[in-house]
């Protein structure tokens, strides 16, 4: 399916505000991909479709999870909205015809990050965080760093997400901690925890 067809379908599926956010994320992801020498077409598709499951309620999300063998951890059972990444990857494949695994992976993990993020994974998570429609506090620092050092920008994004969740006495997903630790290891010691183990 071509990008403009995906765009038409997505516009029908999402609330107007969420659709605008998706288009903004796509544009930011394309800019980041160009800047970091990543595939621009993949960034466009992943950016556009990253929230394609966001229109589903918890019940519908759980139904997708059980139909497609997506197992939820105890934390995820308490925070079903986090699964819009994993379910989004399913819908991107089934409804939008995306076959590129790197694109599907970026959609899957945009909500939490994870230990060994690819450049495309990083671009989508960051674009989602900094797109111009985002007005949340602390976004400025990540925005400033985004085109200077994507890893430092991501640390800033993770820090502010974790702070936000902590302030609300919320549960922090272990994949977010893992992602942050690995990127910090990379910045501080020149290798990630995973590379070190390998
Ligand atoms: Fe999302
Ligand atoms: Fe989003």
From TrEMBL:
Keyword Hydrolase carried by entry: yes
SMART domains listed in its UniProt record: HDc
Entry keyword set: Hydrolase, Iron, Metal-binding, Nucleotide-binding
Record PROSITE patterns: HD
CDD domains: HDc
Catalytic activity: P(1),P(4)-bis(5'-adenosyl) tetraphosphate + H2O = 2 ADP + 2 H(+)
Xref: InterPro entries: Diverse_Catalytic_Enzymes, HD/PDEase_dom, HD_domain, HDIG_dom, YqeK
Enzyme class, broadest EC rank: hydrolase
Domain HD: 18-133
Classification via Gene3D superfamilies: Hypothetical protein af1432 (1.10.3210.10)
Enzyme Commission designation: 3.6.1.41
GO MF terms, alphabetically ordered: bis(5'-nucleosyl)-tetraphosphatase (symmetrical) activity; metal ion binding; nucleotide binding
Keyword hit for Flavoprotein: no
Pfam families: HD (PF01966)
PANTHER family, per the entry: BIS(5'-NUCLEOSYL)-TETRAPHOSPHATASE, SYMMETRICAL, SLR1885 PROTEIN
Matches recorded under NCBIfam families: bis(5'-nucleosyl)-tetraphosphatase (symmetrical) YqeK, HDIG
Protein name per the record: bis(5'-nucleosyl)-tetraphosphatase (symmetrical)
Organism in which the protein naturally occurs: Ruminiclostridium hungatei (Clostridium hungatei)
Gene that encodes the chain: rny_3
């Amino acid at each position: 399916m071509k990008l403009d067809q995906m765009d038409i379908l997505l516009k029908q599926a999402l609330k107007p505000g969420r659709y605008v956010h998706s288009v903004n994320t796509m544009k930011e992801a394309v800019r980041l991909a160009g800047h970091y020498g990543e595939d621009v077409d993949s960034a466009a598709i992943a950016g556009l479709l990253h929230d394609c499951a966001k229109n589903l309620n918890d019940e519908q999300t759980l139904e997708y999870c059980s139909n497609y063998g997506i197992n939820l951890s105890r934390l995820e059972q308490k925070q079903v909205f986090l699964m819009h990444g994993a379910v989004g990857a399913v819908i991107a494949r089934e409804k939008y015809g995306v076959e590129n695994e790197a694109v599907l992976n970026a959609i899957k993990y945009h909500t939490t990050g994870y230990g060994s993020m690819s450049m495309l994974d990083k671009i989508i998570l960051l674009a989602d965080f900094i797109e111009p429609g985002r007005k949340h506090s602390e976004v400025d620092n990540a925005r400033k760093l985004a085109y200077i050092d994507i890893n430092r920008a991501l640390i800033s994004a993770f820090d502010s997400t974790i702070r936000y969740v902590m302030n609300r006495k919320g549960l922090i997903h272990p994949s977010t901690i893992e992602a942050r630790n690995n990127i910090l290891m990379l910045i501080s010691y020149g290798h990630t925890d995973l590379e070190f183990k390998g």
